Amino acid sequence: MMNRSMSLMNVQEDHNQTLDEENLSDDGAHTMLGEKKKRLQLEQVKALEKSFELGNKLEPERKIQLAKALGMQPRQIAIWFQNRRARWKTRQLERDYDSLKKQFESLKSDNASLLAYNKKLLAEVCIYISKYICVFI
Fold this sequence. Notes:
Layout: H1 2-22, H2 42-54, H3 60-70, H4 74-135
Helix pairs in contact: 3-4
């Protein structure tokens, strides 16, 4: 009976911890249940994108400068850059996949053409061999 009550307490603690983790906003601050995260303003996003284009790695000084200039917390800036790098990497992987897929399709087509040409040459060789054998019979 003691083990059962302990496991129920553990499940309940895990559930409470999960609820706490779900209530974290992007900047790591707790939000109230049902409260929406504050979205960035268009000007902030444009400035962050421009800064990202200059360099996708964020030095501490630059993070603090951006935070002050945009009226954001340095942690928000760091998380935005981390998320943006993840999106960039995903897009890059998709571009690489598309490029490799095109190369594969091209090679596959070339291979099919070469196999057909090889088959044709093999048929010609068989004809010449059969003619050569017939001459000596």
